[in-house]
């Protein structure tokens, strides 16, 4: 059964785990109309998201839309005859509400975990200093060389 | 509504998006000079030199020694782990890279608090340790328009409005000025920042404002003119009309504690 990938503003990258797990799948990003109409952010922010979204969907059947997130993702899934939407987790309460909305609308939602920085889960201590004491050793241990970087000539000064 | 994805020229994209998203933003339809996307993020990561970070990260001017990666990290274009791995593998584990990873961990920490508290981050997390004496009022128009006459504040806000970025130390100055000198509720300041910051993040933004205000820390953060001069290479004060009289920051910390909160510095700091 085919699937789609739903991208949101907390994971708007061609390296998004849901995208990487579904290299052929169509992908959608939605400018959240009710939220943005109320928030009235600066255009700079929306344009930044647009540039990120364009690169994230490049090379696949991709769509960037304006509308109600749950409705647009559902419609996109239907257009591609998909019963499953893959997405990367976010801690934002709004994200959880949209997942609930999509499931209520009959879509199966598969949630991928973002790449961890430290393995801590659950309630953090009250102060950063206590948190840092407990995670420092792990946080300072690299897991690899990091992403391949462009050559020096390509770097803007 | 389906948006176009075929335009490749930035000016054309901006003109198109300004129309397509009409009603969903406020202010002029001008993009930031900071580009979105993974390619731009990797270029920035490649350009950042972490040597000197520990000593110079607080310098607002004339030279900056911070990564400016926050817009990419906030939107998941780069992960904290990728940035950590890249910096340590290229610069080794040094006091500079350790400090840098410690700053990355602040974001991880705020995200965990957000995961735990959800929308409660928009309320005072703890009672304020000290309340400013300034009478409560909403964000004055001269702050919104970056015309307070205080060059350090106005230029920081101007940079925010035109680029969507503000240096961390300048964010601390502006947040402290708004809350402790002007008596503005932190939510109003946080909302202004959130509308403009390319890295605008519910957790990092609200919780940092609360950290400055002391509803999520042991004491209010304050600064003085000496601090501004030390970390701006005199870029601001030398051009400020209020430098020769009337600068509200031109005082000792002891006097500021009395003036702003009516307590001694020792009391303010909980000593
Ligand atoms: C009032 C106020 C509001 C803020 N609002 C935001 C916000 O909305 N979004 C946001 O990402 N940061 C926010 N910060 C934190 C900090 O100012 C920015 O993360 C930092 O200035 C980004 O610049 P940089 O990438 O050059 O930082 P660098 O010094 O290069 O740090 C590297 C990365 O570490 C993270 N980081 C560093 N310091 C902090 C910090 N104190 N808290 C959280 N993450 C940190 C960021 O992801 C940053 O990109 C706020 C700070 C204050 C005082």
Question: What does this protein look like?
Answer:
The complex is a heterodimer of chains A (157) and B (271). Chain A is an alpha/beta fold and 157 residues long. Chain A has helices spanning 17-20, 33-39, 43-57, 69-79, 93-104, 128-139; strands at 3-7, 27-32, 41-42, 62-67, 84-88, 108-112. Chain A has a single domain (3-112), classed as HUPs (Rossmann fold), CATH 3.40.50.620. In chain A, helix 5 links the parallel strand 5 (84-88) and strand 6 (108-112). In chain A, helix 4 packs across helix 5. The longest helix of chain A is centred in the N-terminal third of the chain and has 15 residues, at 43-57. Chain A is globular and about 50 Å long. By secondary structure, chain B is an all-alpha fold. Chain B has two domains: 38-121, Serine Threonine Protein Phosphatase 5, Tetratricopeptide repeat; 141-268, DNA Cyclobutane Dipyrimidine Photolyase, subunit A, domain 3 (Orthogonal Bundle), CATH 1.10.579.10. Chain B has 14 helices and two strands; from the N terminus they run E-H-E-H-H-H-H-H-H-H-H-H-H-H-H-H. The longest helix of chain B is centred in the middle third of the chain and has 23 residues, at 95-117. Chain B is globular. The termini of chain B are far apart. Chains A and B meet through helix 2, strand 3, helix 3, strand 4 and helix 6 of A and strand 1, helix 1, strand 2, helix 2 and helix 5 of B.
Structural domain count of chain B: 2
Which outline of chain B best applies?
globular
Poorly predicted regions of chain A are none
Tally of discrete structural domains of chain A: 1
Number of helices, where a helix is a run of at least 4 consecutive DSSP H or I residues of chain B: 14
Topology:
The complex is a heterodimer of chains A (157) and B (271).
Chain A: E1 3-7, H1 17-20, E2 27-32, H2 33-39, E3 41-42, H3 43-57, E4 62-67, H4 69-79, E5 84-88, H5 93-104, E6 108-112, H6 128-139
Helix pairs in contact in A: 4-5
Chain B: E1 2-3, H1 10-20, E2 25-26, H2 38-47, H3 53-56, H4 70-74, H5 80-91, H6 95-117, H7 141-144, H8 151-163, H9 168-181, H10 186-196, H11 202-213, H12 225-232, H13 253-261, H14 265-268
The complex binds flavin-adenine dinucleotide.
Residues 57, 66-70, 73-74, 103-104, 106-107, 110, 167-168, 171-172, 175, 193, 197, 199-201, 204-205, 208-209, 212 of chain B line the site of flavin-adenine dinucleotide.
């Amino acid at each position: 059964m085919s699937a789609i990938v739903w991208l949101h503003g907390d994971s708007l990258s061609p390296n998004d785990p849901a995208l990487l797990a579904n290299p052929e799948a169509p992908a959608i990003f939605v400018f959240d109309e009710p939220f943005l109409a109320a928030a009235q952010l600066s255009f700079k922010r929306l344009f930044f998201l647009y540039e990120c979204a364009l690169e994230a969907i490049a090379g696949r059947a991709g769509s960037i839309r304006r509308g109600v997130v749950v409705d647009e993702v559902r419609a996109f899934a239907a257009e591609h005859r998909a019963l499953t939407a893959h997405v990367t987790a976010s801690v934002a309460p709004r994200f959880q509400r949209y997942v609930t909305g999509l499931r209520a609308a009959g879509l199966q939602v598969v949630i991928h975990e973002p790449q961890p920085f430290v393995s801590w889960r659950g309630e953090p201590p009250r102060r950063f200093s206590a948190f840092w004491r407990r995670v420092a050793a792990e946080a300072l241990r690299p897991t690899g060389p990091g992403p391949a970087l462009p050559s020096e000539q390509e770097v803007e000064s | 509504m389906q948006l176009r994805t075929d335009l490749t020229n930035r000016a054309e994209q901006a003109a198109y998006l300004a129309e397509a998203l009409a009603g969903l933003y406020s202010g002029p339809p001008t993009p930031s000079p900071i580009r979105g996307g993974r390619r731009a993020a990797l270029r920035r990561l490649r350009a950042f030199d972490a040597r000197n970070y520990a000593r110079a990260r607080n310098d607002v001017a004339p030279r900056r020694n911070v990564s400016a990666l926050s817009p990419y990290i906030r939107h998941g274009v780069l992960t904290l782990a990728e940035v950590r791995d890249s910096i340590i593998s290229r610069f080794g584990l040094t006091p500079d890279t350790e400090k840098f990873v410690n700053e990355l961990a602040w974001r991880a920490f705020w995200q965990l608090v957000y995961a735990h508290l959800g929308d409660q981050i928009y309320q005072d997390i703890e009672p304020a340790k000290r309340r400013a004496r300034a009478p409560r009022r909403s964000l004055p128009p001269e702050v919104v328009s970056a015309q307070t006459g205080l060059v350090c504040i106005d230029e920081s806000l101007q940079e925010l409005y035109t680029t969507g970025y503000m240096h961390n130390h300048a964010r601390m100055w502006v947040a402290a000025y708004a809350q402790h000198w002007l008596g503005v509720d932190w939510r109003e300041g946080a909302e202004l920042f959130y509308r403009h910051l390319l890295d605008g993040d519910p957790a990092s933004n609200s919780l940092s404002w609360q950290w400055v205000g002391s509803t999520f820390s042991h004491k209010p953060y304050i600064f003085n003119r000496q601090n501004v001069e030390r970390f701006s290479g005199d870029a601001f004060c030398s051009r400020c009309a209020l430098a020769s009289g009337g600068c509200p920051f031109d005082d000792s910390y002891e006097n500021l504690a009395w003036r702003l909160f009516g307590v001694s510095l020792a009391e303010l700091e909980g000593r």
